[in-house]
Specification:
The structure holds two protein chains of two kinds. Chain A is extended, with a radius of gyration of 27 Å. Chain A contains 14 helices and 13 strands. Chain A has a five-stranded antiparallel β-sheet. Chain A has a three-stranded antiparallel β-sheet with strand order 6-8-9. By secondary structure, chain A is of the alpha+beta class. Chain A has helices at about 55-70, 100-105, 115-135, 175, 210-215, 220-235, 250-255, 275-285, 295-300, 310-315, 325-330, 380-410, 410-445, 455-505, and strands spanning about 15-25, 30-35, 40-50, 80-85, 85-95, 100, 135, 145-150, 155, 165, 255-260, 345-355, 360-365. In chain A, helix 6 runs antiparallel to helix 8 (about 275-285), helix 12 packs antiparallel against helix 13 (about 410-445) and helix 13 (about 410-445) runs antiparallel to helix 14 (about 455-505). Chain A has two domains: about 95-330, Transferase(Phosphotransferase), domain 1; about 380-505. In chain A, a hairpin with a 4-residue loop joins strand 12 (about 345-355) and strand 13. Chain B is an all-alpha fold. Chain B has a domain at about 225-335. Helix content of chain B is about 75%, strand content about 0%. Chain B has 21 helices and two strands. Chain B has a two-stranded antiparallel sheet. In chain B, helix 8 packs antiparallel against helix 9 (about 140-150) and helix 15 packs parallel to helix 18 (about 270-285). The chains are: A alpha+beta, B mainly alpha. The interface between A and B is medium-sized, with 28 and 25 residues. Chain B: Belongs to the Mo25 family. Chain B: This is MO25-like protein At5g47540. Chain B: It holds the Pfam family Mo25. Chain B: GO terms for molecular function: protein serine/threonine kinase activator activity. Chain A: This is Serine/threonine-protein kinase BLUS1.
């Protein structure tokens, strides 16, 4: 058993000598250090400033506990942890090559080649499979939390925001003021400056699954799969999708995200070739419906991972190209494209994974049309939009099947609950129609290239079809609404009758 | 005939019985490492995993109430819980975690609308002593600790632990150098002192002298930052709870306690200062301040007023400001 041969790391600061900083966050610093009594074994020590992590020590406790009880080759496990003044020192294995995020940003700005991505993702899936089997959700999968050792071995780190589906939720702490110490990444040098914004929610927004943002749906293991898919894109492109869009705090605070759109998204410039298997694998992770996302175990059986390279391949092809962790840190924290002044604010109502372009596209729920053309892919989204229409139809059905139950109790419930729902549905469809009309108008205005004529025409046709189908849906909904109203009237009549009957009986 | 029965799927009760048999075997065999024992250990792990998936469901299915009830009933019919707790150090890490989750879940299972786990524990209180002593063994501390916290959800069980000698041991456990274990112990300590209000009030009244003597000298005066910070927070939570008002009045009538709190107000940690203020304000707000308390306030009036005038929270906090103003008014009026 692993426990038997586990070395006992001393629990006092004097036994360690800190060498230098290799990472820092809002309320923590990570050092490379040696453990003197253990023949100067090299370790990493994360020093968490407890004085700066406000009210919530429970979270620190949960992270320490999670790290103490996990035991898997792809999961970073703490050797021990103890208090030094007002700091918590967490002694961990030293992962010499640092985080994948810092590797990518220092030597692979345009992303890693596919052959190097596959072995990394495979190891992470092993870690996820283990965690999920334990009923644990990591909730913050990203390149910054994937650590690499000099031998190419991979470990998933940072359990500051992980949640256990077996543990009863902490009584009231999570909503009020969660500590900032949990969201800083282990060796991640860049996104730490953002951490203060993320106090209210778990995870880091670019990697966050829609149902985590829409938290009323609740977390699931499948949220990790989404973040895993985003991480794949991050490794492929060198940055997470949409990271050229600055984040605003309201993204975190609200169910509908607000993103500011930068002038030159430079979205499709890096035309890289990715295999069909890779695209297919990522697409499945980024399915909007969490139940359609495959489990970590199932992903491990995906063809993409079939002829995967080994750790040695990573050492030769990736690690040799990058400077050491300490050199990288000395160069100073790098910032991802963030925080340029706000231009225009538009609502993003969701994300659509664009398999062809291997990108994640925002769906804008906008009323005004912008001058500069954003990008031309919107037209390709209509499959998804139609699906959304279908979903709404299904919702309606669910509503109408629920109606008889409601009706049997009181007819007024139907009127109060159902009718406003239908009306708002109708409203949202109208909005969508308006949106498509806008797009159409814009396409007509901005397209004058001859070669693109055909494409444009096709697109227009598709859009027209879509508008028609939306119109159809609206008509259907109208019919439904009328039917429901009639039913409602009828029920009210019945109710009246019953009332009359009962009063007459009383007489 | 036998073959026919073999193909039948095992009932939840069967899984419990088989687990129990395997635990008895493991318990008796000591720690020999022969092949047969290894095999039994693997089988035991599988059975405990199965108990867990019956209770929690798995990726394919949700838990079934009837199956859970059957399992619970069989589990507590005999001494399975005792065996499981005793054998836990012999299990591997993954099985220990499964076992902990099984025990945790069983505490909440109703059989004929009764929490039979509570009845069982009441008849086997020595198990709680065993779980508490787990904090002395690094390898099992977190597992026993998690089980213990689930067990003290039952009021009668929490009362037993509070009133037993175990309560004194927590003052040592909270200061253990290993952070995982110390923080688990303080979580349990806090749970014991806040969860069941009436029981806590009774405990604090009956054990006032020794408890607060220990609490002040061991925890509030600790050199360990986290011990001190958690203790002052817990003290505030306890004293501000209405059910503990008698204890609160007694606490804020003591000169020594006031001196202690004034020390904490000057702590170098802002968090500790703020938590200390929430207790300190009770001394000032007390309508019937004993003369010795008034004397201290008067003697330190200027210093205190100057300190409070500069005392601010990082974030704007209206309640804090209002409390502070009230305290300053009280002190000036003395």
């Amino acid at each position: 058993m692993d426990e038997a041969k586990r070395m006992v790391y001393p629990l006092d600061a004097k036994s360690y000598r800190l060498l230098y900083e290799i990472g820092s966050g809002v309320s923590a610093v990570v050092y490379k250090a040696v453990c003197l009594p253990l023949d100067s074994a090299v370790v990493a020590i994360k020093s968490i400033d407890l004085e700066r992590s406000r009210a919530n020590l429970d979270e620190v406790r949960r992270e320490a506990k999670a790290m103490a009880l996990l035991n898997h080759p792809n999961v970073l496990r703490a050797h021990c942890s103890f208090i030094v003044d007002s700091h918590l020192w967490v002694v961990m294995p030293f992962m010499a090559a640092g985080s994948l995020q810092s590797i990518v940003s220092s030597a692979f700005a345009d992303g890693l080649p596919e052959q190097s991505i596959a072995p990394v993702l495979k190891e992470i899936l092993h870690a996820l499979s283990y965690l999920h089997g334990q009923g644990l959700i990591h909730r913050d999968i990203k390149a910054g939390n994937i650590l690499v050792d000099s031998d190419g071995s991979i470990k998933l780190a940072d359990f500051g925001v992980s949640a256990s589906i077996y543990e009863s939720p902490p009584s009231s702490s999570s909503s009020s003021s969660s500590s900032s110490c949990s969201s800083y990444p282990m060796y991640n040098l860049s996104s730490s400056s953002l951490s203060t914004f993320f106090n209210e929610m778990a995870g880091t927004p670019y990697w966050m699954a829609p149902e985590v943002i829409h938290s009323h749906v609740g977390y699931g293991i499948k949220a990790d799969i989404w973040s895993f898919g985003i991480t794949a894109l991050e490794l492929a492109h060198g940055r997470p999708p949409l990271s050229h869009l600055p984040l605003s705090k309201s993204l975190m605070m609200r169910i509908t995200n607000r993103l500011r759109l930068e002038d030159a998204p430079d979205h499709t410039s890096s035309k890289k070739k990715f295999s069909k298997a890779f695209k297919d694998m990522v697409a499945s992770c980024l399915s909007h419906d969490p139940s359609k996302r495959p489990s970590a175990d199932k992903l491990l059986r995906h063809p993409f991972f079939r002829s995967c390279k080994s750790a040695d391949y990573l050492v030769k092809n990736v690690l040799q190209a990058v400077p050491t962790v300490e050199e990288r840190f000395k160069e100073g924290p790098v910032t991802v494209g963030l925080a340029s002044p706000p231009n225009k604010t538009r609502r993003v109502s969701g994300w659509n994974f664009h398999e062809e372009g291997f990108e994640l596209d925002p769906i804008y729920l906008g009323e005004e049309c912008e001058d500069e053309s954003t990008k031309g892919e919107e037209g390709d989204d209509d499959d998804d939009d139609q699906e959304e229409g279908k979903e709404e139809g299904e919702m309606l059905q669910a509503l109408s099947t629920a109606a008889p139950n409601a009706a049997s109790s009181t007819a007024s419930v139907v009127k109060q609950v159902l009718v406003p729902n239908l009306v708002s549905l109708l409203g949202s469809l109208d909005l969508q129609r308006g949106m498509v009309m806008n797009l159409l108008a814009r396409c007509v205005r901005c397209a004058d290239g001859d070669e693109e004529m055909k494409v444009r025409e096709q697109r227009e046709q598709l859009l027209l079809q879509y508008v028609n189908s939306l119109q159809q849906t609206i008509n259907d909904l109208n019919l439904h609404l009328q039917k429901e109203m009639k039913k409602n009237d009828h029920l009210e009549e019945l109710l009246e009758n019953i009332k009359m009957n009962s009063t007459s009986e009383e007489d | 005939m036998k073959g026919l029965f073999k193909s039948k799927p095992r009932t939840p009760a069967d899984v419990v019985r088989q687990t129990r048999d395997l635990l008895i075997y493991v318990d008796l065999q000591g720690s020999s490492r022969d092949a047969k024992r290894e095999e039994k250990m693997i089988e035991l792990s599988k059975n405990i995993r199965e108990l867990k998936s019956i209770l929690y469901g798995n990726s394919e299915s949700e838990p079934v109430a009837e199956a859970c009830a059957q399992l619970t009933q069989e589990f507590f019919r005999d001494n399975t819980l005792r065996l499981l707790i005793i054998c836990l150090p012999k299990l591997n890490l993954e099985t220990r975690k499964d076992a902990t989750q099984v025990v945790a879940n069983l505490q909440r299972q109703l059989v004929h609308s009764r929490l039979i786990a509570s009845d069982y524990l009441e008849a086997n209180k020595d198990l709680l002593d065993l779980l508490v002593s787990g904090y002395e063994n690094m390898d099992i501390a977190l597992h026993y600790g998690a089980m213990l916290r689930e067990c003290i959800r039952h009021q009668s069980i929490a009362r037993y632990v509070l009133e037993s000698e175990n309560m004194r041991k927590f003052f040592d456990y909270i200061e253990l150098p290993n952070f995982d274990i110390a923080s688990d112990a303080s979580a349990t300590f806090k749970e014991l002192l806040t969860r069941h209000k009436s029981t806590v009030a009774e405990f604090l009244s009956k054990n006032y002298d020794w408890f607060f003597a220990e609490f002040n000298s061991r925890l509030l005066a600790s050199s360990n930052y986290i011990t001190k910070r958690q203790a002052i927070k817990l003290l505030g939570d306890m004293l501000l709870d209405r059910t503990n008002s008698a204890v609160m009045i007694r606490y804020v009538s003591s000169k020594d306690n006031l001196m202690m709190l004034m020390d904490l107000l000057r702590d170098k940690s802002k968090n500790i200062q703020i938590e200390a203020f929430h207790v300190f304000k009770l001394f000032a707000a007390n309508r019937n301040k004993p003369p010795e308390i008034v004397t201290i306030f008067v003697a330190n009036r200027n210093k205190l007023l100057r300190f409070l005038a500069d005392f601010k929270t990082d974030k704007e906090d209206e309640q804090f400001e209002a409390d502070k103003e009230q305290v300053m008014k009280e002190i000036s009026a003395l």
